[in-house]
Amino acid sequence: MGSYIGAVDLGTTSNRFIIFDRQGRIVGLDQKEHEQIFPQPGWVEHDPMEIWQNTQAVIRGALGKSGIKGSELAGIGITNQRETTVVWDRNTGKPLYNAIVWQCTRTDGICNTLMADGGQDRFRAQTGLPIATYFSGPKIKWILNNVPDARAAADKGDALFGTIETWMIWWLTGGPKGGAHVTDVTNASRTLMMDLQTLSWDDEILKILEIPSQMLPRIVPSIDHDTWGHTLLDGPFKATVPVCGALGDQQAALVGQTCFDVGEAKNTYGTGCFLLLNTGHVPVASRHGLLTTLGYQVSGEKPVYCLEGSIAIAGALVQWFRDNLDLIDQAPEIEQLALSVDDNGGAYIVPAFSGLFAPYWRSDARGAIVGLTRFVNKGHLARAVLEANAFQTRDIVEAMNKDSGVDLTSLKVDGGMVGNNLLMQFQSDILNVPVIRPTVTETTALGAAYAAGLAVGYWSGQDELRKNWSVDKTWEPDMASSAREKAYRNWQKAVERTFDWV
Asked: What are phi and psi of 273, to 5 degrees?
């Protein structure tokens, strides 16, 4: 068996390849950003061929920089931006259209039509999801309805659908030359087309969406002892390495944080913000605007379910502050700017750029800055940007406590923003629980590596992975409860101001 495990991390803004050793330490890494395409307001696309080219480049880059050979890898796991939708030709590998990204709101009309008969929760009993522009099913329908020849290709069996991990597994294992067409249960659970109980495509929903079942991938466990395929000798690895583990990025972070016990939760601060709570082998239906989703499944075992709170705009708000307002040059500078003032000066920013996700699910909302006075300066706005992430997380935790009947006692955190001490302290203050950052914050890629490593027996089991996890820093709450509740009440008022805009 190889000495290392590789993880392909297919993010919303960049692709990475990371090589881990047995202790879960990073021994090789390369990263490349890809273009964000905005054809119209509210529309977001990626070029799937660029993602495939960049992925090959970062695989070669990480192997080259570390001096590790592809043949030294015991297996490859994949993690990905979820819900983003690709439809391509099985014979040529050419996409029929750009990838439609999870943030894209173009399927609003399709979703409204679906909701006219049965409301927003029409498919919730089967899928655990509300009808929303976020999920893949309506995006496939949009492509079939709007791209010339797409429906004919789908009916003929020439068009394949996949989320980004499916697209990548297909190419890595041969592409048009017999590539594996599979999706793991966590990604399948984000399409609005999978039955949570049976873990299979729901025929009734497919009929309503007019999506032919032959274009859909086979649903497989996240950690699969049956290898889906091997990389090609003439591919970027120059070796036949088993591809056998895949998890949507948020579920990968859950596994990377070793949240294997019921009641354990993690929050990832990335482009968006995603809080997942392990609810065990039973899917818990949400009555407070959360998603019921798959956490992971080991082949031959019962699946593990989660409650999830999804926030569309988190780190992306810092990017907007940097790129659109030009108030900072580098994202990390926001912390210094925010520290130039004592508080938010009464200003609140609600980043409903593409509507609001959990727990509101309002595609009619748009972003707002409220509470402005002559006193407010860019330092206050910088602080309001950071605080928005913590307030949105509190919205999710409130809903989660109600749905699960268990109060969150601590929060494990990861993602790009957890290096921001001011944000982490404010998060602890506003939740009134300790916030814990692990030593390895690349938990998404680590989770994908764990999935592949468990599948091939590189790691013995969950106990060995728990030993790899260690605390880097803990923040304790340090805010008077009256101040906490006043700030949160103001936030809730600000959120209401964003409704009914479109």
From this structure: -130, 135
